[in-house]
């Protein structure tokens, strides 16, 4: 017999408590980085964004430098799992790493902290190598035969990296995208009709962010690549996603109008419509 609702809730609560307890041990330096059993078990559990962010929030600014080695180790374990494991551990490691980036970047942004985001996450000398390996692996998830869930998780992680600061030009993580181009992976997503329908919006939003990074002060490789892109399938997918999103936004705007307003649109629509069929007020 299956578990009852109460039993399932109890089981979920126990897993939540377990992952939070493991986070506490990590940040209290109670875990040896050679304890493979601990790390393998951690990445079998669903990542908990709210609790991870809460733990980072509670670290004082003075303690951030002291705990840097702990965060460096945590990030290293996330990247190692993503690049060397398969299945649910990879998904959970991507999510965990994304949540950790969010938590540390938010602390820096909100409190105007002076610490170096790259140094806190990777160590000042490790970021370039780590991210080169990681981005190559993540791009393979987008271009090879992996599940739509993992593709969505990968795109969400890339978007997290690109949006950790209010001003994208001040985001140090964007440099990893400039040095490790993901343009081909994004256009591959747009080429595929099925993938484009599922992941197209995230791919186009990410591409727009990448194109606009420091575009007025340096040569942006994504802008150059898009300007010379000679791939009808990718361009059609790009146009399809833009048209669909504009249509959705127009519909949302129309639905948000006061009840009295649609009659005005109807009036103007009727002026230009035929007797046979009245066209909608906005048509794409």
TrEMBL record:
<dbReference type="InterPro" id="IPR035965">
    <property type="entry name" value="PAS-like_dom_sf"/>
</dbReference>
<dbReference type="GO" id="GO:0005829">
    <property type="term" value="C:cytosol"/>
</dbReference>
<protein>
    <submittedName>
        <fullName>UPF0668 protein C10orf76</fullName>
    </submittedName>
</protein>
<dbReference type="InterPro" id="IPR039868">
    <property type="entry name" value="ARMD3-like"/>
</dbReference>
